[in-house]
Write a structure and sequence with these properties.
Blueprint (H helix, E strand, L loop, with lengths): L7 E7 L4 E7 L4 E5 L5 E7 L2 E5 L2 E5 L4 E4 L5 E5 L3 E7 L1
Antiparallel strand pairs: 1-2, 2-9, 3-8, 4-7, 4-9, 5-6, 5-8
């Protein structure tokens, strides 16, 4: 991850009911605009990220969590080196 210019994504755990995805960010890296159709919570394990939608931005710090709205275009921006979990399902 040291030289990564994109988020580093790895499935941490999954079964037929849920999936936990680990996302690693270097400072300044962006998880580009996308949507989810599955209930998802973003949990910051380390660092600081900004969750952005068209009309709002939310700064999230270590141990903060944010329930991502369904079918809404959003992105995640790392304001410092960060590790997050996406908990889906």
């Amino acid at each position: 991850m040291e030289n990564a210019t994109d988020p580093v994504v790895k499935v941490f755990r999954q079964n037929e009911h849920f999936k936990v995805i680990t996302v690693g960010f270097k400072k300044g890296v962006v998880l580009k605009d996308h949507q989810t159709s599955i209930k998802t919570v973003l949990l910051v394990v380390k660092g600081v990220v900004t969750y952005r939608e068209a009309d709002r931005s939310v700064n999230l710090y270590q141990y903060d969590e944010y329930e991502i709205p369904l079918n809404v275009t959003h992105s995640v921006h790392a304001t410092e080196d960060s590790i997050c979990f996406l908990i889906r399902g």
